[in-house]
Amino acid sequence: MALERTLILVKPDGVQRRLIGRIVSRIEDKGLQIVAMKMLQITPEMSRQHYAEHVSKPFYPELEGFITSGPVVALIIEGPEAVSVMRTLMGATNGRASAPGTIRGDYGASRQMNLIHGSDGVDSAKKEIAVYFKDSEIFATPLCITPWSWAPEEA
Length: 155
Known about the structure:
Layout: E1 3-10, H1 12-16, H2 20-30, E2 33-41, H3 44-50, H4 60-67, E3 71-80, H5 82-90, H6 103-107, E4 116-118, H7 122-132, H8 146-149
Antiparallel strand pairs: 1-3, 1-4, 2-3
């Protein structure tokens, strides 16, 4: 296992629906550590950086319009296998098809308005984190609870 970091965005629909606290609680309840967090407005330029592989696709203008439509909360999450753990916690992209107990399964009913973004791999997490955070905004301070969250050989 590996200690990983992943980018999480509470998207504009999650912010507007006042789900920030519930989503952050789910992450903390799972035992993952938040090492950075801020609210911001994504610009079209940031959207193009984040979704670079989709810019030329027909659906991109709608995606950019949505992600730039209101503030988001950006987080960096750290923990053993954080990328896959967060993807499981988020649930399937389409909230209607997402399992109960997941964030999208409990709070979502749409494929497009799906509340939360999570990096799909370690490499994409590194790229995405760089779009939203400076190194000086990341606080990787070990928590006193960490030894109770996972064994040393799991990190």
